[in-house]
């Protein structure tokens, strides 16, 4: 448990974040003192950068300065005005319905309590708490991803979901901090204690913080000092449909990650089926290797740097039509983005999968004779017992069958290294969760997405992370720092 007093820490942080940008919802609250604008800005701000929310809110409030103005706008117009906030289509639907619900159930007044607020379209508990705290200055604890994450990093709570965190904080956080905790920790979470690679090196409370669950970043912090100049950041993510994840804020997630290379698997699309936005993300060139069959498999890699060459597939007729491997060559390394086949129910595709694995291994070994090789992607196998929640029940299932794990043993025994396990030996660190049974919330998952490097390149690895707070797919992204 945390060894320092919460009043002391929050006092230090309040001073610290006074110089940071004010979270957008607070800013709108202070500037307008208008519950309508706070409510709408809060709805817009979910899964959206403050900068984007601010621009969208300004455009919207110009045409809809009040509830009556909002009622005059069509859903189509709303969609245009609030683009590109995350989930803009859904949010436009909610905003279009909002005036009607407020008129019929609340006499055109914005409720000032959490429960009635949650009856409004697009308003969950987090949004409701934020509106109550910011617009009405009433005691409420708004627990968003930053509050939930940081409170757990400190060990002040030990919870699995934001709702559990809210309930735990209601029990133990002194009431005088309820109103301010969200804006303090959102600003701190955006500026210093970031979800990806927090700046522990410059953190004003580092001497108190137990840094629970951020071990890889501590290691990264040590090595970064000497490697800073040449360090690159790579991300791999099975998006389970690029068109689907675009609607869930992909462009913004990519901007936040700010990685040098981003490898995507299971894009389930051919380039001509994708939006211009997705194909032309500023700062990146995208390389596509789609399956011939529409809506199936496929990989893509976004790169900031122009590669020396691009290799599509592994020159094998049995595999390449499925769009599974895309390799970018740079001066001092190859970057292989791979989507391994699923062995499928009844292990019907096991033979094909093992053949693919061996052919890819041969391909990677050949490249590794020339220069470093980074191979990432959805390997569709959990290697060891600690890599999935229920190993016993899954011994004969695809993804944990003995044949697949034996191949992984062989792959890792003959020259490649699972970089995540270089730093972290903990169980419960997963990258994929079923959409069923609330598996992600309960962390019932599998670690099947990897960054591996050839043995001689392990010294070039500076950090690894599983970015499990990034949503949008049934997989989460994984990260590698490489110099
Ligand atoms: S030391 Fe690191 S993990 Fe702890 S609060 Fe500061 S930035 Fe966050």
Automatic annotation (TrEMBL):
The record marks 380 as: Transition state stabilizer. Its cofactor is Mg(2+); Mn(2+). The keyword Cytoplasm does not apply. GO terms for molecular function: DNA binding; DNA N-glycosylase activity; DNA-(apurinic or apyrimidinic site) endonuclease activity; double-stranded DNA 3'-5' DNA exonuclease activity; metal ion binding; phosphoric diester hydrolase activity. Residues 44-191 form the HhH-GPD domain. The record marks 449 as: Important for catalytic activity. InterPro entries: AP_endonuc_1, AP_endonuclease_F1_BS, DNA_glycosylase, Endo/exonu/phosph_ase_sf, Endo/exonuclease/phosphatase, Endonuclease-III-like_CS2, HhH-GPD_domain, HhH_base_excis_C. One of its GO terms (biological process) is base-excision repair. The record marks 475 as: Interaction with DNA substrate. Keywords: DNA damage, DNA repair, Glycosidase, Hydrolase, Magnesium, Manganese, Metal-binding. SUPFAM superfamilies: DNA-glycosylase (SSF48150), DNase I-like (SSF56219). It comes from the Bacteria. Pfam families: Exo_endo_phos, HhH-GPD. Probably binds two magnesium or manganese ions per subunit. Mg(2+) binds at residues 238, 266, 378, 380, 474-475. The active site is at residues 339, 378, 475. Belongs to the DNA repair enzymes AP/ExoA family. Belongs to the Nth/MutY family. NCBIfam families: exoDNase_III (TIGR00195), xth (TIGR00633). This is Exodeoxyribonuclease III. The lineage of its organism: Bacteria, Pseudomonadati, Thermodesulfobacteriota, Desulfobulbia, Desulfobulbales.
